Amino acid sequence: MSGDISTGGPPDRQLDVAMEIGDGWTRKLTITIPPERVGRARAAERKRLAKKVRIKGFRRGKIPVDVIEQRYGDFLDEHVRSVLVQEAYREAVDETDLRPAGAAHITNVQYSPGERLTFQAEFEIMPSVSLDRVGGFKIARDIAPVTDEEVSEILEGIRSEHADWSPVERVPKDGERVSVAIEPLPDPDSEPRGEARPYQFVLGSGQALEDVELAIKQLAPGEARAFDITFSEQGEGDGSERRRLHIRLEGVEEQKLPDLDDSLAALAGDFADLGALEEAIRGDLARHHEEEAESRIRGQLIQSLIDANPFAVPGALVDRYLDEMIRAPEDAAPEKVREARKELAPLAEGRIKEQLILDRLIERESLLPSDEEVRAEIERIADRRGVSTHEVRRQLAREGNFESLGRNLAVEKAFEYLKGQSGLE
């Protein structure tokens, strides 16, 4: 859809603005500044410049107009053109009640001293989100039960955290901690130069390359040898690289786990016995499963809203979101950056739709938190942290998080509203 909308008005108006509606959320403004305003702006800039510059033979502030024009005419034109374009663009946007989604592309600037200034500004506007349907969705509430396997896995993790390590004099195996010194060798005939770096890790934990671990498992404590190692994020194939490393195994330690009894509960915290520790673990896991279920419910609600209320996202918003997501170094390969942006674009678009839908819902249903609700939340945070409400307020102010606190409360209210509009199965 395209067309022209003129905001022309009385003869004394400062601007003439014509708007063309392009594809999607694209808008193009043709903005005309009358010659009277251009002339006033140029005269004011010339006067300011005359008071500032020094020209031999003239006192400051007393330089004739024709001298200023001769010396600085081109500068005046460029400066006035730039300032007026920016001012007029901002005024035109306010005048037309548009909300740009990104920076405008300024083209076709036409300007001559004593005449009107005309230019075009093309940009995308923030989308209009119409929530025609916000409920009646079939949403599954599926909370996974706590299993004995999960409890056992956490207990084994606690045992590992409190394990003792004892040195052994043999070839290491998975699950044992090794201390090694590794030095890159420039070519197969090179000898170590004493520039090895020390490392310590548990074999089989994924902390080292597979080839490095295989090499270490061939050594006994005190032994050293050179190995050819494959470096690649995806193993053998395109992009892989073979390097020669000199590896010395300094030591091997085997793990001795504490017994799974009441003494382990005492090591883990203030628990009366092993049963109390297991009960606490089950409670934590149950809360975790509930949080996961809530996250899935919210995801289903948002996707249902997006599907039921489709709208296009301006490319300017996606680009800005990707700029925040991808902080590529200056020397990054352009094709890699483009590939990453293309891959992440659907994710960015989904996140933007989610935020815009929630913003519209919060606005439509007046879900912003009241002062009393904000105070109550600050009190809850203070109780949880064991500090005063004054300290919480001070931290929020220092970190600039007052606004995000209100936003989070509004989002919570929005999802409670949405859940009330749909049945949870």
Describe the structure.
The protein is α+β, with helices and mostly antiparallel strands and 425 residues long. Among the domains are: 4-124, 2-Layer Sandwich (Alpha-Beta Plaits); 134-163 and 275-311, no CATH class; 164-256, Roll (Chitinase A, domain 3), CATH 3.10.50. Helices cover 47% and strands 19% of the residues. The chain is built from eleven helices and twelve strands. It has a five-stranded antiparallel β-sheet. Strands 7, 8, 9, 10 and 11 form a five-stranded antiparallel β-sheet that branches. Strands 6-12 form a two-stranded parallel sheet. A hairpin with a 4-residue loop joins β2 and β3. The longest helix is centred in the C-terminal third of the chain and has 35 residues, at 274-308.
